[in-house]
């Protein structure tokens, strides 16, 4: 049984850490949680700024991945190939919304969701969705 450096109590519950010879943290899990929380709160502004920068960097990386992916692709219905108007249309078990995934997910997760999609231009996508959901039965008053 190891003794916590902070609370000085013998405990079995320590986090793994490669920094130490025995591969265990010097603080028990409870003391480590408190120390980490105090450290985070004492550097709150800096931590929030770093988190925001990281999120923005990931978002831009993901947007660039989508832009690069759509170059050279075309709508499966009409052949439109302008990446600005191309969209992903799920054809099987939609698990995630790609616009949400772009905000904070890995490229691998985005690629996995793209594999479940066809590429359609915005107009063809709207038409297909309207027919699929029965919108074409609604009479448009004009």
Descriptive notes:
It is a single chain. This protein is of the alpha+beta class. The protein has a domain of 94 residues. The longest helix has 27 residues. The N and C termini lie far apart (79 Å). It contains five helices and six strands.
Give the overall shape, derived from the CA principal axes.
elongated
Q: In which order are the strands of the major sheet placed?
A: 1-2
What is the helix tally?
5
Which class of secondary structure composition applies to the elements?
A: alpha+beta
- Uncertain segments are none
What's the SSE pattern?
EEEEHHEHHEH
Key features of this structure:
6 strands, 5 helices, 142 residues, alpha+beta, elongated, two-stranded antiparallel sheet, single chain
Give the SSE layout.
Layout (H helix, E strand, L loop, with lengths): L1 E2 L6 E2 L2 E3 L7 E5 H14 L1 H27 L15 E5 L7 H7 L2 H8 L2 E5 H12 L9
Antiparallel strand pairs: 1-2, 3-4, 5-6
Explain briefly what this protein structure is.
This protein is an alpha+beta fold and 142 residues long. Helices cover 48% and strands 15% of the residues. It has a domain at 44-137.
